[in-house]
Structures are given as structure tokens and as C-alpha cells.
Amino acid sequence: MKVSDILRVKGNTLYTASPEDSLAQAIETMAEKDMGSLVVMSHGDLVGMLTFREVIKCLVKNKQVIGATSVQSAMDSTPLTCTMETDLDDVRRMMLEHHARYLPVLDKKMLMGVISFYDVAKAVVESQDFENKMLKAYIRDWPDEERPAA
């Protein structure tokens, strides 16, 4: 299974922020849309990722005050990314090794979507469920062995 398969099922709604946006505004968007991340874009290019992890780190650093903090000062400016052709097993390894919950999906420099750890887990469970159903159907329809003539 490829990343493109996950995005096809998930849909293509994306929420973004710009580096100049206020962090408070970005947090409000994340809360309203029930999103754990925002892709940070500047002039059509991916320049960072803002997740609740970065928000919490920023709050701790600033003694729980957001004030006039910008998205740029809180975002991860070197997010882990993948492509539409990245295999799901590779995505799982990448996410686990780097403790990444969200991966922007790029086609060259164009943002195609974001996949989350939840999306990956859901795809794995659905794939396993399908495989289990197929195996059970195969076992149920197992042909009788022909007995040799006596």
C-alpha cells in the first residue's frame, strides 16, 4: 500500500498557516477544525509544520504566554516528509523512528496532503481486516481432496 492510497480515501482537505500568522490564530484554527497540525506554507512552498507538540514546547519556553508569538517561531522548520509513492511500511518506520505524528506528502515541491499516525494505523487495520476475510473465505471454500480410486 502506498501513501497515495491513504490520501485517496482520506480526501484532500488541507489546513495551512503562514510563518507570519500569529500562533494564537493558528491554535484557534487547530482547535476549531479539530486538527493536530497545520502545514506552514510560504509563497507556495512548504516551510514548516506546526503541531500541538511545537505549541506545547513554545508555551513552556514562554512561561505559558503566547502573546505576539508568530507561527514561524514555534514551527518545526525541517519536518519529515514523504511522497505519494512512499510505501506504507516505510512511512510506519519513519514515523516511529522520528516520533512524527504527521507527515506532509509532497510531489516534488507541491503539497499533496498530510497523513497522520491515525491514518496509517487505520489503513493497516483495514488492510489486515480485508486479508483476514479473504483467508477465512479461502479456508471455507477449501476443495475436498480427491481420493484415489481403489
Describe the 3D structure.
With 150 residues, this protein is of the alpha/beta class. The chain is 45% helix and 20% strand. It has a single domain, classed as CBS-domain. A three-stranded mixed beta sheet has the order 1-2-3. The longest helix has 24 residues.
Topology:
Elements: H1 3-10, E1 16-17, H2 23-32, E2 37-42, E3 45-51, H3 52-61, H4 71-74, E4 82-83, H5 88-98, E5 102-107, E6 110-116, H6 117-140
Parallel strand pairs: 1-2, 4-5
Antiparallel strand pairs: 2-3, 5-6
Question: What characteristics describe this protein?
Answer:
150 residues; alpha/beta; CBS-domain; three-stranded mixed β-sheet
Cα-to-Cα separation, first versus last residue: 49 Å
Number of helices: 6
Instruction: Work out the radius of gyration.
Output: 21 Å
Query: If you consult CATH, what is the topology?
Result: CBS-domain
The best one-word shape is elongated
In CATH, the homologous superfamily goes by the name: CBS-domain
Stretches with pLDDT under 50, minimum 5 residues: none
| Overall pLDDT | 88
Strand order of the largest sheet: 1-2-3
- What amount of the residues lies in strands? 15-25%
CATH architecture: Roll
Beta strand count = 6
**Biggest beta-sheet profile:** 3 strands, mixed
Helix fraction, binned, reads: 40-55%
The CATH C-level name is Alpha Beta
> What would you call the structural class?
alpha/beta
How many separate domains?
1
